[in-house]
Amino acid sequence: MATNNCVGSACTGACVAPFLDCNSDKTTDGCETDSSGDTSNCGSCNNSCSGKHLAATTCAGSACTGACVAPFLDCNSDKTTDGCEIDSSSDSSNCGSCSNSCSGKHLAATTCAGSACTGACVAPFLDCNSDKTLDGCEIDGSSDASNCGSCSNSCAGKHLAATTCAGGACTGACVAPFLDCNMDKTTDGCEKNTSNDPMNCGACGMACMSGKCVNSQCVNVVFVSSVALPIAGLSVAVVNAECQTLATAAGLPRPSSYKAWFSDNMGNSPSIRFVQSASPYALLDGTVVANNWADLIDGTLAAPIAIDQNATPLVGVTVFTGTKADGTAGNTCIGWTSVMIGDTYDDGSNSFADSKWTQNAAVTCDVMAARRVYCFEQ
After folding, report:
1. Which helix (H) or strand (E) holds 295?
2. Which residues have a Cβ under 8 Å from the Cβ of 218 and sit 6 or more positions away?
3. Which CATH architecture has domain 213-377?
4. What's the sign of the alpha-carbon dihedral 208, 214, 217, 218?
């Protein structure tokens, strides 16, 4: 005690801090309690420190202290009254730490589990940043083109007029001539160019037998032979076989369908032997030479037939035809049997797109020079 006094037959006097007289008996033991470290009289008499969820009940410096046993926290800074009063593993207002409130945005229920904010999202909302504390289920998966139907499910903008998510599915109009043929705008948008895709020519699933699609139309392939044939022994069968052999070697689809633009004197002319197609005729580089049969025989091509079966340019060669521009038989050396100077055959030149492509000159049958042939897919 600061001073020892006896007043009214009783021992009195002020205690020296932090000591206290908690049993009101200064006669026997004076100021018997050290309130700086006594957990039952911490800072004042009968001020007991709570032991709730504390590793050890402690009084230090006249204040109740001590480490909380995880996951409990002392969020009201009052270990005297209720110790570590908060279970941060399940308290949605103090989830994992004091004042860490779980967001209730678009959640069926605001939930804290294992010291982390959790809970089921209310459809179609999604938690794509894995942060239910800050913003809950922040993404509307029904309309977000970067998270369409599920997180990170981005709608591709490939050949789409606008990248759109509607009802949790990637949608949007394709930019022509592209189409979405695999019904998957999420992965690859409008993935097929129907202007040149031989398996989807002009429309999904529209396959070209020729293996060639030009301007959204299946075309009949045309080429000039890379090989020159001698005049001796020429016949429709021979030149047709040559076209088919060259098409086979070049790996062209349906090689057996190729026929030569070639006539004899027995009525075997293109006008009789050919399928008079409504589809375009085109070179292997996609160049259209005629829009259809009627256009092919009108006397003028859109472009010379100056590419061979290997898609290699071949310009300025003469061609056996024996055929007029309208596809009927012309001069044929009497069915390719005469070698007389007085007989003639018609040849063509692939330098031209006018009627000279098939009827360039009347050549006497004694001229034995080898020439190419034109080959048309049927």
Report:
1. helix 293-296
2. 198, 201, 202, 206, 208, 209, 210, 212, 279
3. Roll (3.10)
4. negative
Counting Cα atoms < 13 Å in the Cβ hemisphere of 287 gives: 17
* 312, two tokens: 């290699």
pLDDT tens string 186-219: 989 999 999 999 999 999 999 999 899 999 999 9
What sign for the dihedral angle of Cα 322, 324, 328, 331? negative
DSSP state of 273: H
Bridge partners (DSSP) listed for residue 142: none
Q: Give the number of residues written for the chain.
A: 378
Its pTM surpasses 0.90: no
Distance spanning both ends of the chain, measured CA to CA? 123
**Can you say how many angstroms the Cα of residue 152 is from the centroid of all Cα atoms in its chain?**
12
Q: What are residue 240's phi and psi, to 5 degrees?
A: -60, -45
How many whole angstroms separate alpha carbon 272 and alpha carbon 292?
A: 16
Please tell me the predicted confidence (pLDDT) of residue 376.
98
Q: Which of 328, 318, 327, 326 is nearest to 362 (CA)?
A: 318
β-strand pairing of 192-193 with 178-179: antiparallel
Domain-wise residue ranges, the chain: 1-87, 213-377
**Helix, strand, coil percent content, the chain, rounded in steps of 5:** 10, 25, 65
Q: What percent of the chain has pLDDT over 70?
A: 98
- Cβ-Cβ contacts under 8 Å for 172 (sequence gap 6 or more): 155, 160, 161, 162, 163, 164, 185, 189
Classify residue 130 as left (phi > 0), alpha (psi -120 to 50) or beta: left
Type and span of the H or E element at 236: helix 236-249
Full DSSP string of 166-203? ETTEEE-PBPTTEE-SSS-HHHHSS-EETTT-TTSSSS
Alpha-carbon span 143 to 161, nearest angstrom: 17
Are the C-beta atoms of residues 74 and 68 closer than 8 Å to each other?
yes
CB of 222 closer than 8 Å to CB of 291: no
55-68 pLDDT, tens per residue? 898 899 988 899 99
State CA 330 to chain mean position distance.
56
